[in-house]
Write a structure and sequence with these properties.
By secondary structure, the protein is mainly α. The protein is about 65% helix and about 5% strand.
Length: about 270
């Protein structure tokens, strides 16, 4: 069972790295937003979610048994990766954007803006899924991973297990960073891609370690985050005249004494 889940996660990582292709930004794209490679990524996440469902209880029980034997370093590491899932990306993304705008670093501002946008888009889908699915978290009903009830998640936090929001955050950031860097430095995607998605996978594992999510929760959250990151970056860089980039990446920032005046001016 462990080999099956590990194989699913490996398939997901390889699929994500493969589709992080450079995007032509010299003109408005005539290609559709969704391409053939997306079907491979979607299939990888769907297979991963289905394959992990039968072992949800197994991994939850194993982590509960092993927790008492783990040391303080492991606890701190899990806490760190939990933070990197949420609120980490929601702090890092806007910070990169702000620093990039003030420093005049267009690439940094671009990455911060589009990464944050991917988080917002992904969060909308995850929030909808949590509310509708109404799945009990492992700590609420540890013996029944199939405890779903339509619309129950809107009112009760302990029934918002599916899908994982922290996994969304980690994978949306990983997808956006990998896609952006593949556009700027195509040869780096084989280094940056595995590193970013590997870190995102540890975020997902930390949620299982903290008994907040089942394995299938984190894989589905990872899928939503990946698609959000890839599609946001692809759209913006294949449609360079879109209104969001005009307003937020073409703004004029003029130093004025001790203050910085920020004049939002649409790009031409």
């Amino acid at each position: 069972m462990r080999r099956g889940l590990a194989s699913s996660l490996a398939l997901v990582l390889v699929a994500n790295t493969l589709v992080a292709q450079p995007v032509d930004t010299t003109k408005v794209s005539t290609k559709p937003l969704f391409v053939k490679g997306d079907a491979f990524v979607a299939a990888a996440f769907l297979i991963g979610t289905i394959a992990s469902a039968p072992v949800d209880k197994y991994f939850s029980e194993k982590l509960r048994r092993d927790t008492s034997r783990l040391n303080r370093l492991t606890d701190r590491s899990a806490d760190f990766f939990r933070w990197m899932g949420t609120p980490g990306p929601y702090v890092i993304g806007p910070s990169l954007y702000a620093i990039g705008r003030v420093a005049g670093n267009k690439e940094m501002a671009d990455l911060g803006l589009h990464g944050t946008e991917a988080l917002v888009v992904g969060t909308a889908f995850v929030t909808l899924g949590k509310g509708l699915a109404g799945r009990a978290r492992p700590f609420k009903d540890p013996d029944n991973p199939r405890n779903f009830k339509l619309n129950r998640g809107w009112k009760h936090e302990e029934y918002r297990s599916f899908p994982s929001g922290h996994s969304l955050g980690g994978f949306a950031a990983a997808a956006a960073v990998t896609a952006e860097t593949a556009r700027l430095w195509p040869k780096t995607r084989w280094v940056i891609g595995p590193a970013m998605y590997g870190g995102a996978s540890l975020i997902a594992v930390s949620r299982m370690y903290h008994n907040k999510h089942w394995a299938s929760d984190v894989i589905m959250g990872a899928g939503i985050g990946t698609f959000a990151g890839l599609k946001v970056v692809r759209y913006h860089h294949s449609h360079p005249n879109n209104k969001i980039d005009k307003w937020l990446l073409s703004a004029n920032i003029t130093p004025g004494g001790k203050l910085v005046s920020w004049m939002i001016m649409p790009g031409k």
